[in-house]
Amino acid sequence: MRLSGTLRLALVLAFLIAGFTFFAGCSCGDDDDDDDSGDDDTLPVDDDDDLDDDETDDDTVPDWPDDDTGDDDTGDDDTGDDDTGDDDTVDDLFVADWPQSNIETQDYDENPSAGTMRLKAEDYDQFHLDWHQPYYGSTVGIVVFTDANRDTVSSYGDFGDSCIWTGTYATSQAFRYYVTGEQEAKDNAIRAVTSLDRHLHVTGRPGFIARYVAPQDAPEMYEAFGGDTWCEGHHSCHHIESGDYAGDWWDGNTSRDQYTGWFLGMATVYDLVDDAPTRAMIAANVAEVLDELIANYWWIIDVDGQPTGAAPNVLPPQQLNWALIGYHLTGEDRFKAEVQKWIADDKRDYLRLMNITIMNRYGDYYGNNLGHQNFYSLLRLGKVYLGADDYAFLLDMFDTQTHSHTRLSHNAFFNAIHMSQGIYTPSKDEYQDQLEEDLGDFRDAPNTSYAVDPDDTALDPVSVFLHDLIVQYPFLGDLFGNIEPQTLDAHPVLQQCSTDFLWQRNPYRFEPCGTDNEAVTRPGVDYLVAYWMAAYHKFIDKAD
After folding, report:
1. What is the per-residue pLDDT for 79?
2. CA-to-CA distance for 286 and 264, rounded, in angstroms?
3. Which of 271, 307, 297, 267 is nearest to 285 (CA)?
4. % helix / strand / coil in the chain, to the nearest 5?
5. Peptide bond into 446 cis (omega under 30)
6. SS3 sequence, 96-136?
7. Are 309 and 42 in contact, with CB atoms under 8 Å apart?
């Protein structure tokens, strides 16, 4: 049955309203970035109020609902404001004293012989170490070998997302080290965050992080893309000819998704890797990045002094998480104040609004990965720093928004985050069963390029409707992203598309995808972070 023209128009208008809301907090754009394409904002206006109606904001910390510290009210019966001199019975802005800790008890049993999952992890660990972290140690998404023997590298590719995958890889190695105590895992974690330190400081702009950095004399990377001629033709490519990083080149125009992986890696390595110089470096770097973001109203500013062209506006749930990470690492009151700005009760509706994720089911699915990475640290640290009511609110926001439409969708990474930080009862065996199934089915290392033709082709009618709607009204594609007809059920891991990070790709693909090529490999960070997170939280044993 075809919808009438009037009904279709009504639905278009409804989607437009939802779309503009979604667009403010969605992942819309090219490749793996949640770019806000067409955004002509430069910097926000001076008024830093988001929801209040103050014409002249006298707050010393932006967006606090009330900055009074010496309130002389007598008989004040408020229960929800933040005055420190009144008789409130509820502290709306409670944040626990620094420092707090929330890490697993270190009693993982390493005595059994390694099972198939552990052996697979060991192979991926070694392959990544050997081939996917050239030069300074940052992860590259594609290695092209000269032939299927995979002895000699022809070229590297997919470096534009290096920052997020290097942070994710660092996270996996921090889990691995905490579980196994292996020196190699510790070295890998330190190398990864040291490379992320280089990403930060090579740019020359305080607090601005590069997507990738490598030497100019690296033939498999720089020369393979065209060398100086190529670099000079791309506004995001930069040469360094003097100073500490002379001889390097770096890729910029950095988006908030790259920062997401950077913060995840820094926070996890800081907590799980016992190396004092590394922890000091991490704390200093996080403080530097946060100070720059806060000074620019949470916009990522490129070296030209303007917001980057790729999702430069840090969304409120990310602001809350990154500020909480900063407070956890440093104990600085200025980061605590940013946390308090967003845990105020009157910001809850806005936080929910800016965390809308439902269209990521059909559009830019990788936005689900950004949300899960963000909530892993936010819930882990929120449990020990925030009041019970604020923590419960964030937990519910994760459960009913971020994780709701990815639940039990053959995504071991999201499942492990849900099981460790979400509303999860261990007696619900379907989560444990699917976690083991997905890790068990994941292809062995090396993760070469492959083709798949899904068996299950039963279509999801909502996806068909949205696809047809965008075909009829193409401008909706700018709001929702490209939506193709999708299957009703998520495909098992073996029928999901070959890619750099499996867990950020849509498991409901209807069409065949990929090509078989044993000379092209992916880094395996997807398996490593899911496996070692599951091991760290003791959902799987070494013998599994």
Report:
1. 46
2. 11
3. 267
4. 45, 10, 45
5. yes
6. CCCCCCCCCCCCCCCCCCCCHHHHHHHHHHHHHHHHCCCCC
7. no
The answer to whether 378 touches 113, Cβ cutoff 8 Å, is no
Give residue 90's pLDDT: 53
Q: Quick one: tokens of 384?
A: 């020990």
- CA separation for the pair 498, 216 (Å, rounded): 30
pTM of the model: 0.85
**Can you tell me the distance from the alpha carbon of 95 to that of 490, in angstroms, rounded to the nearest whole number?**
40
* Separation in Å, CA 174 to CA 141, 202, 266, 274: 20, 24, 10, 10
Taken in order 358, 364, 368, 374, is the CA torsion positive or negative? negative
Residue 142: Cβ within 10 Å count? 16
What letters, b where the CB count within 10 A reaches 16 and e where it falls short, cover 15-50? beeebeebbebbbbbeebbbbbeebeeeeeeeebee
CA distances from 69 to 132, 175, 239, 339, 350 (A): 53, 42, 49, 17, 25
Q: Rg of the Cα trace of the chain?
A: 23
Give the span between the Cα atoms of 8 and 12, in whole angstroms: 6
**Phi, psi dihedrals of residue 308, rounded to the nearest 5°:** -65, 165
Q: Could you say which residues of the chain have pLDDT below 50?
A: 1-89
Please answer whether residues 327 and 98 qualify as being in contact, where contact means their C-beta atoms are separated by less than 8 angstroms.
yes
Reference 424, options 402, 395, 401; nearest CA is 395
Both tokens assigned to 322: 């990154």
In eight-state DSSP terms, residue 84 is S
User: Which 3 state secondary structure label does DSSP give 301?
Assistant: strand
Distances (CA, A) of 141 to 62, 177, 219, 337: 39, 23, 17, 37
Length of the chain, in residues: 544
- Pairing assessment for the beta strands 142-145 and 517-522 based on DSSP bridges: antiparallel
CA 180 vs CA 107, 167, 183, 440, 534: distances in Å: 10, 20, 9, 20, 13
Residue type for position 17:
I
Residue 448, SS3? strand
Amino acid symbol at 471: V
CA distance 216 to 509: 39
pLDDT value at residue 55: 38
Tokens 């209807």 locate to 510
CA-to-CA separations, 483 to 354, 462, 478, 508, in angstroms, rounded: 21, 10, 11, 11
